[in-house]
Amino acid sequence: xxxxxxxxxxxxxxxxxxxxxxxxxxxxxxxxxxxxxxxxxxxxxxxxxxxxxxxxxxxxxxxxxxxxxxxxxxxxxxxxxxxxxxxxxxxxxxxxxxxxxxxxxxxxxxxxxxxxxxxxxxxxxxxxxxxxxxxxxxxxxxxxxxxxxxxxxxxxxxxxxxxxxxxxxxxxxxxxxxxxxxxxxxxxxxxxxxxxxxxxxxxxxxxxxxxxxxxxxxxxxxxxxxxxxxxxxxxxxxxxxxxxxxxxxxxxxxx
Amino acid sequence: xxxxxxxxxxxxxxxxxxxxxxxxxxxxxxxxxxxxxxxxxxxxxxxxxxxxxxxxxxxxxxxxxxxxxxxxxxxxxxxxxxxxxx
Lengths: 255, 86
Prior knowledge:
The complex is a heterodimer. Chain A is an alpha/beta fold. Chain A has 6 helices and 8 strands; from the N terminus they run βββαβααβαββαβα.
């Protein structure tokens, strides 16, 4: 929970950009944040949003690490070259996006990285915001070794057939049958992607297939309501949602 | 939302970026999350030359009304240039 640390505790976090062996054995960058002690703990693969592997995601990873988890946030645009995060994102757009298959491979490799740590307790969650939320659902559906998934307003989960592409050949909702781990979903009711109607369609599918999920929807919030660096930030909704995130992580990643 | 609306064309021209003028080889037009413009989405115009590096880029973010006005402005200038025969 937020502000639950004890004032006589010695919270210490290490956070750095590393390289790890991603999908297909490629060395790619990741932001790796973890408590600076030898205690055994759960891990989180954090998938960044469409605007890139940016400073928000570094701080996001650090916050999760401060709450006691090993966190790896792969740079999913790493193979495109380097520069500022907005330059890398522009290049991603020019080159047509990142294939779903690559996201799955890099995430599976990140899971293996976490599980090989001496402090790993063998439990991991995959999570992300925006396209990272979509990516988290994709990965959770295809990599059953994860123990839970958090989708923060991932768009394009419900995708019309005419919008599928060779790089994104399957609508994420059509993987629901294969999703066999608890799912936490957090959404803003003013969001247009996913719209409340799309969230309902997704929820209906989860219900129909008897999946383990919890969805929370916030009035007065749109897309990206955690983003304190934008006008979209909604502090009340974000703080409530953070509590739900921490509660889910506590439940799934407990030793 | 991530719209994933984007298209890229080969172009000939020059652009002035962070390190000065360079030949641009591709234009990209998208409508997706803005990096700087203070709205959720923007028309994202990029003129790039990736042979020179990821930062060989001239970027502009516009709202839809400005993008429409720009299209009209471009069309008007193109027609006048063609009429002038230059």
